[in-house]
């Protein structure tokens, strides 16, 4: 049994997924002030005793800027080159910002195969537990885009974050995006659904694809993530990562964005 079993832990644990949309500017560069604000929020919550595992996108988007792509390339080797260039930039930035607050980052790059093999899954699980037990390391997970190919890739970090939440037996999965939640219709005027008790066909029909050049999945993969997390008993919340102190507000129990219950539980 994993050491971090939910019932045996004294600290609540969240997995927080940061999407490309909130990590980058409309021009495609990493959005430094925004990332700084998110790091600050995570560091404050960590300091208050919450354990946080980050799942961060942004490698391909960041690499695209550096390699001079205006649009997301389609060839696998171009995408992989973007990830190879962008991932270290991203981690360097996280390390710089977290170290200002007394924390360090720990990078885990996973593929679908790592979660499909019991040994590799348990290795990743034990590594995260070990890091969390040390108190000052923030695991930052991304898909290992450089070696992933069609048959073995998640392709989106929404579902990956839900599998990670199940792996670490998180109390909650939080998906921070650049939309305020699941809208009734995929346009800026659509009403936000505050609570999803059960993922019905009606909910699925609301979820559309992304409108962004750099992101993947849109709301479709976020609803998939809610289903994966829910089946592991983990509630999931989607909120706008650009809203002021969004993580603190969620921690305070404020009703923001869309909360997907897991088996009726918040
Ligand atoms: N029902 C919906 N409610 C809100 N956003 C939606 C919906 N359907 C599709 N979307 C799209 O989901 C996108 C957000 O997801 P995505 O771009 O993948 O962000 P991230 O990079 O954070 O994963 C937005 O572009 C939005 O247009
Ligand atoms: N692994 C990719 C992210 C893929 C992804 O899911 O992106 P997003 O839809 O922005 O969360 C990257 O780092 O660019």
TrEMBL record:
Reading the lineage from the top rank, the first entry is Bacteria
Biological process per Gene Ontology, one example term:
L-proline biosynthetic process
Q: Known CDD domains for this protein?
A: AAK_G5K_ProB
Q: Does the keyword Nuclease apply?
A: no
Q: Which is one Gene Ontology cellular component term of this protein? A: cytosol
List ligand-binding residues for ATP. 17
Q: Where is the Aspartate/glutamate/uridylate kinase domain?
A: 13-240
What are the protein's GO molecular function terms? Answer: ATP binding; glutamate 5-kinase activity
General function of this protein = Catalyzes the transfer of a phosphate group to glutamate to form L-glutamate 5-phosphate.
- What NCBIfam families does the record point to? proB (TIGR01027)
- Any idea what this protein is called? Glutamate 5-kinase
Gene for this protein?
A: proB
């Amino acid at each position: 049994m994993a050491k971090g079993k939910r019932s045996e832990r004294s600290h609540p644990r969240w997995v927080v997924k940061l999407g490309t949309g909130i990590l980058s500017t409309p021009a495609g560069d990493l959005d430094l002030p925004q990332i700084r604000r998110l790091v600050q929020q995570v560091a404050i919550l960590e300091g208050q005793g919450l354990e946080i595992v980050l799942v961060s996108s942004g490698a391909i988007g960041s690499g695209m800027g550096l390699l001079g792509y205006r649009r997301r390339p389609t060839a696998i080797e171009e995408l992989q080159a973007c990830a190879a260039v962008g991932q270290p930039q991203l981690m360097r930035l996280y390390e710089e910002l977290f170290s200002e607050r007394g924390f360090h980052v720990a990078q885990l790059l996973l593929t679908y195969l790592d979660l499909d093999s019991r040994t590799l899954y348990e290795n990743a699980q034990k590594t995260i537990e070990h890091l969390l037990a040390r108190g000052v390391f923030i695991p930052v997970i991304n898909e290992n885009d450089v070696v992933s190919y069609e048959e073995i890739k998640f392709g989106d970090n929404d579902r990956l974050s839900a599998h990670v939440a199940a792996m670490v037996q998180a109390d909650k999965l939080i998906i921070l995006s650049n939309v305020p939640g699941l809208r009734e219709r995929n346009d800026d005027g659509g009403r936000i659904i505050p609570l999803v008790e059960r993922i019905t066909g009606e909910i699925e029909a609301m979820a559309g694809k992304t409108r962004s050049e750099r992101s993947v999945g849109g709301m479709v993969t976020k609803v998939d993530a809610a289903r994966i997390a829910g089946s592991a008993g983990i509630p999931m919340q989607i909120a706008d990562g650009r809203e002021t102190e969004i993580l603190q507000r969620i921690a305070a129990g404020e009703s923001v964005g869309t909360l997907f219950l897991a088996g009726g539980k918040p």
